[in-house]
Specification:
- The chain contains eight helices and seven strands.
- By secondary structure, it is an alpha/beta fold.
- It has one domain: Rossmann fold (3-Layer(aba) Sandwich).
- The protein has a seven-stranded parallel β-sheet, with helices on both faces.
Length: about 250
């Protein structure tokens, strides 16, 4: 999966799945814009990875910041070949514990952020001969789960967002697909699974539900993203790929 000289924008790129994808894309020859709010981590990653990595601090749910970001990218690179919508806000709460502010924040980051990035990336992606938008969904966008109402709803919305957007952008040769991870061992996952104070027991319970009997790793998801970014998936659009250890096959 050669990504040589592709210009890729990866949101939520400073840690977890985003970071693994940044590293893989750099390894495969891409120029990567690392978008994140964590300036310390993003800047360190830029310094470590060298001239083909560029950190840009932005809140993807803020229209003015997203517009300014793509203007800066246009000035620097002139084109965007790949947009990986990965930034997300996770929330583990029941209906009765979820406030309106909680709900709005999840939807603002997980749906509005993806919309804004796609909208303002489009003029630059039209210049590419191999445009691809990839979104991070979740197994929880396909199956139900308690204590995660807002998050699950947003992830289900991402799948429909991608299907509809794929049809709109097909005339421009731009493909849109979703990677749906299962529980993946990222800093955010570890923090969430540690809420009960018994991380090992929570992880063991989760692993027991996966046919492949292990957690996902960030690189597992990065490989799937790289596939959708490459020409090897040039006839695939409007789909979602379950990278979930077989969980939704049961």
């Amino acid at each position: 999966m050669n990504l040589n000289n592709y210009v890729a924008v990866i949101t939520g790129g400073a840690s977890g799945i985003g970071e693994a994808t940044v590293r893989l894309f750099i390894e495969r020859g891409a120029k990567v814009v690392i978008v994140d709010l964590n300036e310390e981590r993003g800047s360190a990653l830029e310094a470590e990875l060298g001239e083909r990595a560029w950190f840009y601090k932005a809140d993807v749910s803020d229209s003015a910041q997203v517009q300014a970001m793509f203007q800066a990218i246009e000035e620097k690179y002139g084109v965007v070949d790949v947009l990986y919508n990965n930034a997300a806000y996770s929330l583990s709460k029941t209906l009765w514990d979820t406030t309106e502010e909680d709900w709005d924040r999840v939807m603002r980051v997980n749906l509005k952020g993806y919309f804004l990035c796609a909208k303002y990336a489009l003029p630059l992606m039209k210049k590419s001969s191999h445009g691809s938008i990839i979104c991070t969904g979740s197994e929880l966008g396909v199956v139900g789960c308690v204590e995660s109402l807002a998050y699950n709803t947003s992830k289900g919305g991402i799948i429909q967002f991608a299907k509809s957007l794929a049809l709109e952008l097909a005339p421009f040769g731009i493909r849109v697909n979703v990677v749906c991870p299962s529980g993946t061992e990222t800093p955010a996952f570890i923090k969430d699974m540690s809420r009960t104070g018994n991380y090992e027991a929570e992880v063991a319970r989760l692993i027991s539900s996966y046919p492949l009997k292990r957690l996902g790793q960030p690189i597992d998801m990065a490989y799937a993203v790289a596939f959708f970014a490459s020409e090897e998936s040039s006839f695939i659009t409007g789909t979602h790929l379950m990278v979930d250890g077989g969980y939704t096959a049961q």
